[in-house]
Write a structure and sequence with these properties.
11% of the residues lie in helices and 38% in strands. The protein is mainly beta. The protein folds into two domains: 192 residues, Jelly Rolls (Sandwich); 193 residues, Sandwich (Jelly Rolls), CATH 2.60.120.
Length: 398
Amino acid sequence: MLIIKKIKTLLLILTTFGIVQAQFLDSFDQDKIDSWFFFTGDGSATMDFIQKDDYARILVDATQDKHNVWWAIIKRDVSPFLDLEKLKDPSYELRVEARVRLSHAPRRINFMLNTQRTTNFHEHLMEYDISDTTHWHTISYLTKNFDAVPGDTVYVQLGVTDWGWGKYQVDLDYYRAEVVNVNNAEYNKGELIPYHPPIPDVGTFSNHLNVAHDALINMDFPNINFNNWHIKNQKGEIKILTINANQWAILRWDFDQYKNAKIEEAGLLELTTFSVPIGGDYAGTYGEDFGMEFNKIRVIEVIGGKSEWDQNKVTYNNFMQDKPYSEIFNTQMIYDAEVLEQSADKNFITISRPVLQRLIDGRTKGLLIRPLGAINPSFYASENNAENSPKLHFNIAK
C-alpha cells in the first residue's frame, strides 16, 4: 500500500506540475509527521495531529468546550520549497490543494495562507463545504494578490472551527503548495465558501421568499407553544421572535415551487429588528480576540426532526422528539452575525450556496436562530406585514 501511494505521488508531481516546477508536497506516507505544528484557540478544545497508514489525522476533542467558538489548525512553513521571486510578477499566485475526509458532515474546513508580515488574516482564508463522511474530497485555493517576497516565511494552514461539543477528526491524504501562473492554473476544486463575504444588494436576487412558519421553542417550558409571543404598544399587538439562552427561533419555508431547482450562488436571510437588549464586557474578561466572538446571533441548519411542523403547535419537546441536539441541528453554524440595534433595521445574513441547495432539496429542514452571548434580540414575526417577515433572497440557475 505504501509503495502504491509513493508511485501515485510521483505520478501526480510528474503529470500535473512537471519535474522542474518548485512545489511543496506532503503525502503523509512517512513514519511520522514532519515539520507541521498545530494548536487550538478561543475556547477549551484540544487537538492532536498524528500519522496513520499513508495519511495524517487531525483529532479534536471539544467535549469540555462551552461556547463552541473554538478553532484548531495545522500550520507549516513552506518557503524553502517555493520560488517566491515569481510572485513579483502579477501573473503568478500561490495555490494550495489538499485531499480530505471528514468524520462529521455537512461541515466546513478552511485554508488560510499568510506570512510573518500578515496583518489581515482573513484576506487569504477560504472555507469549503464538505457534504459527506464516506468519500475523500479534493479542495484547492488560488490566491489573489498574495503578498510574499523572497526572504518571507510563507505559512500554509488547514483549519477546523466551531464544529460543536464532541470529538471530531479530519483525515488528510496530502497537502500541496506551489507558485503557479494564473493563466494556466487549475480551477479551484471543492465547494468554496468565502469567509464573511460582502452583503450584496437585495435587488440582485430574483427570488424573495417569506418564511412559511416561524416559532419559538423554550427549553425551560418544553411542552408549551409560544406562537402568541408578543408585545403591545400604541399600535396594538405585535408578534415577535425573542431569543435568549434558553429560547430559540426556528424558521421553515415552503419550497414546492422550486422543486429540482439549482441554486446559483449564496443568498441572504433577512430578519427585521424589533429590539436588541445587549451588553457585557466580554473583551475585558476574555481578551479582545475571544471577546469579539460574542453578542451575536448564530444561524444554524436544522438537519433532523419533523419537516412540516406547525407554528401554532410546535414545542421544544415535539420538535426535538427526544433526540440529542446534534441530531436535530448542525452543531457548526452557518454564520455568526451582529444584530442591527435600531427598530425596523434590516439584518442580512449570508446563506451559502450549498446550504440553500440543501434547503431547496429538503435535506436541511429549516434554520435555527440562537444567541451567542447574553444578547436578547427580538425580530418581527411572520404574523406582521410581509415587509418585516423573515425571508430568503436567492437566485436560481437558469
